[in-house]
Amino acid sequence: MKHKKVGQVVIMSEEALDNYGEKYREMDLIITHRAHSYMPAKEFYAKGMPDGYHPGYDDGVKGQWLYDLKIARTKKDLPFSLYDWELD
Hints:
Strand content: 25-35%
Oligomer: single chain
Largest sheet: 5 strands, mixed
Shape: globular
Number of helices: 2
């Protein structure tokens, strides 16, 4: 699987839209952080949010990366993170 990069513009997959709502359909999202491993929140923030780690990462989704995003139009952070399968 080819993982996405920080700065890349993506949209939500149909599966993600089913979970988060139609208001996100065709909304351009910019990747701001990506993670492939879990790190406890206290350590994550103390270390300056290091690339590759995230307190919300689920070790049970091997091979999938978790992404933080912002809405391209407003530059506001998306209030949740999404995995590879939730992005197109």
